[in-house]
Amino acid sequence: MYKFNQQEILKKLEVKVERMVDQMGNKSPHVAGSDGVYDDMPHAWWTSGFWPGLLWVLYDMTDNEKLKSAAMNWDEELQKCFSEHPNELYHDVGFQFLLTAVIKHEILESESSLGIGLEASNYLAGRYNPVGKFIRAWNGDKIGWAIIDCMMNLSLLFWASNVTGDPRYKHIAILHADTIMKHGIREDGSVCHILSFDPVTGDFIESIGGQGNAPDSAWSRGSAWAIYGFANTYRHTGDSRYLSAAKRVAHHFIAGLPEDFVPYWDFRLTSTENEPRDTSAAAIAASGLLEIAELVPSNESRLYADAATNILASLTENYGTWDQPDHQGILVEGTGHKPANDNINVSLIYGDYYYIEAIAKLNGWERRIF
Ligand code: GLY
Fold this sequence. Notes:
This is Glycosyl hydrolase. By secondary structure, the chain is mainly α.
């Protein structure tokens, strides 16, 4: 086990993120390369919720008003995308609005944020294909695609059913989760990125490698999304099939970790020589493993909690930017899309978000947005 002082890290994160607020200005960050400067993406881009989200989580832990005021208007900013860029939004409105409108509503009881969150929920529910029983991924001509990542967006639908009392959102989330469980998780707990269906008949056609190495490989961030997404689906439904699925993927993930607990970008590479790690997969999985640790009986919990702590301790010790105050990222060595040679060995805002979220959980954060 690595040594790890979770209270100290939380304090260091508050200092780091306060500085990031000044560095970031109004940017909507996605990637910071070796210069340590985050880019500024259009608000419709899928990662636009993570920066405000990490501000909200840290505000919730610290009551630091500077963080709250930097997070405050992002839900209204992103809402404009529904009228100004409707064709650029897709299944990832979950990530975008859970971490802006929903978390703001939960923390501040803001009525306007409730409305924005529901607008996003209605949009996500509208992407459901009732014949194939899946939520459609992305836009363009791939009308029959569903992806493993979208398990995380289901929390928006569970939330919408909770706040409205209307079970239809939850029905859609459950039917989508069942489809992904049937076609997307293999016997050994590995997962693949993309599932292709005939959008007219709903028939399953094939698995596609996507951001993973191949159709039969095991993209590590895909596994992380599945661990966390199926654990959430169990928490929202009480159906133990989902917890079993989350555990199966978690066992495969933990078994595939190298010595320093941070995975390579895919678990199935013929050689790992010169292959990049993906710290974002590590951070997402750590936060998901902490969920499983809470959901299983106490005599099972340690396996998941220890794995999460080892991952977080290694990220802190080996992949942080603590001694680089000008670096706008928190973690380095994330991998965005290796097969497309895109965003390799970079800081990724979602890696930073899930790292903070997991550290907050270790420090007793009880609110659940996903
Ligand atoms: N949801 C896209 C990704 O994980 O890269």
